[in-house]
Amino acid sequence: MERYYDVAQNCLFSKTRTVSRYVTNLYTKALKEIGVTPVQYSMLTAIQILREGNINELSSALKMDRTTINRNLKPLLRDGHVYVNESKDKRERVVSITKEGEEIYDKGYKEWQKAQEELRAEIGEENWSELNAVLDSVIKVIAEK
Asked: What proportions of the chain, in percent to the nearest 5, are helix, strand and coil?
């Protein structure tokens, strides 16, 4: 019986998934009005930062596999928020944001800020800062692998 309590109380997978579900739900509700998911909003952010990034660059920036990138790009393409062109290297496709995508992004930013502030208020400023620092550190370690 002790091993069950060990897993229930100490499992990093379970704890991170619990937090992830809560955070995902919070941001999903916040971005629902503008019609994008948190993953799609993150993709729009990365696309803006990369300017004309190819699928591999987008995959690397978001730490997602190409199939997840492609699956989440489809609704953004369909809704006219992004477009895909061939790059100078005809074998590659580059993704760019449209004017409509920029407008959606700007509307979403206000909602994203509200979600950030709600979460910050719920967990407290000290936990917020600590959690961000720990997550940055873990991401750095993972990225080096």
From this structure: 75, 10, 15
Q: What is the pTM assigned to this prediction? A: 0.88
List Cβ neighbours of 28 (8 Å cut-off, separation of 6 or more). Answer: 37, 38
- Taking domain 2-143, whether its CATH number is 3.30.1360.170 is answered by no
pLDDT tens-digit map of 128-141: 999 999 999 998 99
Q: What is the distance between the alpha carbons of residues 46 and 61, in angstroms, rounded to a whole number? A: 7
CA separation for the pair 62, 52 (Å, rounded): 15
Question: Phi, psi at residue 60, to the nearest 5°?
Answer: -65, -45
Instruction: Return the bridge partners of 94, or none.
Output: 54, 85
